[in-house]
Amino acid sequence: MDVAEWAPTQHVHSQTAIGGTGKAGCRCPPDGWVARGFVFEVAWPADPEAVARIHPHLGARRFACNWALARVKADLDAKKLDPAHESVPWNLDALRKQFNVEKHPVAPWWRESSKEAYATGIADLCVALKNRSESRSGRRSGRKVGFPGFRSKRKDQARVRLTTGPVRTEPDRRTITLPVVGPLHSLESTRRLERLVATGTARILTATLSERLGAAVRLVLLSRRGTPLPGADHGRPGRCRSGAPGARHRRRRRRHHHPRPQPRPPAGDAHRAPPGGTTALSTHPRLERPSNPSTSPP
């Protein structure tokens, strides 16, 4: 099956392998393909115009998430007063449809940002509500998940997920182009990823740009089952070792704490200086010391 035949209609949140039936329009990859995600650390653009295109999207995502949460709470309060009140279902399609109906009065500036920003905020709320529901029913292990709260600019992780438009790597192997945002300089090489896409063994589905202690782009790939991803850690599926932020510094720190073993001196009296004044190590062809003509005997 050609990878171009699968067109997902929903956001892909999973980072590990997902099974699927291969039917068109489903949220699962087709048979023989897996969806995986990894992170590239990128440099924040220096162009003020590029930054001005990014910041409105980050705020629009947070606004859409808070609007959807306020709508859910309003429906819950109305349900207590009137049991016959029809609430908006807690899913992405229903909340996005309701937002499109109310966006003109509540957000007259909605045209300044892409629709992907609003969809990202609503999708994040749907995930939080689903986690709470599964935690209350016992299907989710671990600590109890409470009802989600409103997102503030100070605490919320600024990010926006892009699912439509061209998401590609440039031939210079250091640039990742995102829709609306434009090109971003990658601090890691994209050579292996570009080769996988060029040969048709992988396809980039979504990209998430985040701004929290630096900038990073998380890409979700649809690749053939068994195809090694660029820099993937085979012991931990779905994780990227070389493309993760700070991986270069961690490798450098490991080399510092675990230096390579140095060669030992020869055993016995070989390391002592003979009567001629030279050591056994200095007579080694690779360790021979250069002679100084001014001090050499005639």
Contiguous uncertain segments of 5+ residues: 1-26, 232-245, 278-289
Spatial gap, N to C terminus: 81 Å
| Category from helices, strands and their pairing | alpha+beta
Tally of individual domains: 2
Q: What fraction of residues sit in β-strands?
A: 15-25%
Order of helices and strands: EHHHEEEEHEEH
* Number of DSSP-assigned strands: 7
List the topology elements:
Elements: E1 33-43, H1 48-81, H2 92-106, H3 115-137, E2 158-162, E3 168-169, E4 175-178, E5 182-186, H4 191-199, E6 202-211, E7 215-224, H5 247-257
Antiparallel strand pairs: 1-5, 1-7, 2-6, 3-4, 4-5, 6-7
Helix pairs in contact: 1-3
What does this structure look like?
- The chain is of the alpha+beta class and 298 residues long.
- It folds into two domains: 144 residues, no CATH class; 89 residues, no CATH class.
- Helices cover 31% and strands 16% of the residues.
- The protein has five helices and seven strands; from the N terminus they run E-H-H-H-E-E-E-E-H-E-E-H.
- A seven-stranded antiparallel β-sheet has the order 2-6-7-1-5-4-3.
- A hairpin with a 3-residue loop joins strand 4 and strand 5.
- Helix 1 packs across helix 3.
- The protein is globular.
